[in-house]
């Protein structure tokens, strides 16, 4: 009997050594959870024996229990590295259509050849479907799907409108708009530009130039004022030294800079009025401001009854030569027109400042980056400025984490002991948050394991000694004559 007791002690000590050695071996394994060998004594009795005089029958390994406490977090430079701070497991499958789920805390993810997020061994990370605003459509494990990042986004759309607001420097030096030349910086006061797109997504550069002047010599006839009449602008005396000419250029299909006329509103009775014309023939729009720096009503292409910047906008059609989609329209190659909408135009003392400049066109975007929020929302960023909500990383929890079945590769499957997985969103309820660019390290305490290793070794030696003593006693008995 004593031999069996000592032998059971040796087996228990060996199991303790094995568990401790496995913990030490995985001290650098991301997402690894340490285990603990748990033992119970062996005791048997019957109705014909007295428990007061019955000794134990040895020891038995009752469980190798996993410990799911949080491991320390390691900061990385890879946005696809993810760690769960708190409760929860990532969900993975072996194939894109598989419903055989496995669960892991190891977040060293990467993209495969089809831009799907996968683990180091090729399993597919599952995500919850989302709406365009990033809200989740369904929180259910059955609706999850492998997360795939599109490498392009959207279809091209032609620019239809540019929104522009600015302040012109009232102290700028006066120039002659008749001498305007976009290639000569000395012929204009200030300029700004933006990228616009045709219907095929080809980019153009649309530039706007401003020339401060008190000489309307290049002004077309208007309001009874003859061209070149000093101090007269469109029939109004320029007593505030606040007259500007605004010109524009745009690049064509070949990238050449083309002068464009800032066209008058077709509803204006005299389309030649209120325009400057440079020596090159290019026509620019008149801008005039009052003594307080506010745009003067009635001096713009669209008839006005209130100061600019208070209620209405000024809309100026601008033509881009040779729209890229022209070949589709029977080869007619028509021009593309967009509107330049100007609001809050002022002329006050201070540097030239553009307070708003945006346009509504875009080209096809190429993937430039991925961001992952603490709630697991994956957003893809594209070269055309688009940001798309792709998916939300699915997390699951279990009624009993220690009941999970280990399958290797730092993964687990559910069992009857663990209970059914419950899916949810990160950073909500009892689920932890997701840290992008971070990895959860093994939760093994190396110092504690080394101490446990010494303890297990001593236990093994003690049980070996008990076995040796039992052997000596048996030898003594056998030698009795």
UniProtKB/TrEMBL annotation:
Span of domain Flagellar hook protein FlgE/F/G-like D1: 83-154
Biased composition (Polar residues): 407-419
Sequence ranges assigned to domain Flagellar basal body rod protein N-terminal in this UniProt record: 3-33
InterPro entries listed in its UniProt record: Falgellar_hook_FlgE_sf, Flag_bb_rod_N, Flagellar_basal_body_rod_CS, Flagellar_FlgE/F/G, Flg_bb/hook_C_dom, FlgE/F/G-like, FlgE_D2, LlgE_F_G-like_D1
Flagellar basal-body/hook protein C-terminal domain ranges (all copies): 436-480
Keywords associated with the record: Bacterial flagellum, Cell projection, Cilium, Flagellum
Family: Belongs to the flagella basal body rod proteins family.
Protein name per Swiss-Prot or TrEMBL: Flagellar hook protein FlgE
Source organism (scientific name): Pseudoalteromonas denitrificans DSM 6059
